[in-house]
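call fold(seq) -> tokens
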Amino acid sequence: MRRVFADSSIFIAGVGSRTGASRAVLTMAEIGLFKLVISQQVLDECQRNISKKLPAALPIFAQLLAAINPEISPHPPQAESDRWTNIIEAKDAPILAAAVLANIDRLLSLNTKDFTPKVAAQSNLIIQTPADFVREIRGIIERGLQ
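ret:
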């Protein structure tokens, strides 16, 4: 099964709205189209930011976590995070490191400022926005139905 890493922006946007590509990604993970992978840091960031910015969405977040049952990777070793600080901001290096160590098929993020094509090339990851990922899945389905 394909394994897709999501950063906290996907969950925050997905629990904040019933529509949009982030919510579609979470729904696809829920129905088992792929295994969603997150790091412990992503989980912590989600809980902290949703509590602070969208407290009414906490039950939705809890329900989605239970339904999706994501694989949760541990915090990466500091040396592994440090390895990436020359191409990405230090605050995002542990996310990138966790994704690389988890050997995922792609990383999804709304943070296109930091998760750039250069980061994708140097980390050998496919990095996409939720909208790009949904378009890709839609194309696969359309080709399959022809």
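The first helix runs from residue 8 to 16.
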